[in-house]
Specification:
- This protein is of the alpha+beta class and 77 residues long.
- It has one domain.
- The protein has 4 helices and 4 strands; from the N terminus they run αβααβαββ.
- The protein has a two-stranded antiparallel ribbon with strand order 1-2. Strands 3-4 form a two-stranded antiparallel ribbon.
- Helix 2 packs antiparallel against helix 3.
- The radius of gyration is 11 Å and the shape is globular.
Length: 77
Amino acid sequence: MIGYASANVIHAMRGMVFPASKADLIERARNGGAGQDALEILASLPEGARFESLADLVEATRDADQAPQTGVIDVKP
C-alpha cells in the first residue's frame, strides 16, 4: 500500500514519458505544480537513478511517508 506522499508523486507524474532520470522526474513535478512532499521524495532518490517505468518509480518511493506539519520525510525500513 502506498502512502499519501507517494500518491502525490504518482499524481505529479501524469503524462511522464519513461524511461526517465531523477532530474527528468523533478522537472516534470515542478512544471506540474507538485507539492513540496512530492518534490522532497523525488529529491531523496539516489543521484543518477533512472526509472524504466512508473512502476519502478512507485517501488522506489513506496516506503516514503511525510509528516505534513513539518515537511520532513521519513523513509521507513
